[in-house]
Structure formats: C-alpha cells, structure tokens
Specification:
single chain; mainly alpha; Bacitracin ABC transporter ATP-binding protein
Length: 40
C-alpha cells in the first residue's frame, strides 16, 4: 500500500491565481515564455 501525497496547493488554485495575475499584469508574450523555458 502506497500512501498518496496530496499537494498543498491544488492545480485549480494555481490556475485561478495565474488567471488573476494575468488580468492584473497582462498575459506573458510568447517570446518571453520561450526564452524562459530555454534559458530558465
């Protein structure tokens, strides 16, 4: 029997948080996102 760990912060919460941040500060540009993934 393996005990399943539950995350402290749910994906649903993070999705809502990201949505609110995007409303306040605007959606990130595609170029910036790609640079972050490649260089991050």
């Amino acid at each position: 029997m393996k005990k399943e760990n539950k995350p402290i912060i749910s994906d649903e919460f993070l999705d809502k948080l990201a949505e609110e941040i995007n409303q306040l500060y605007g959606e990130p540009a595609e170029e910036e996102s790609e640079d972050y993934k490649n260089n991050g």
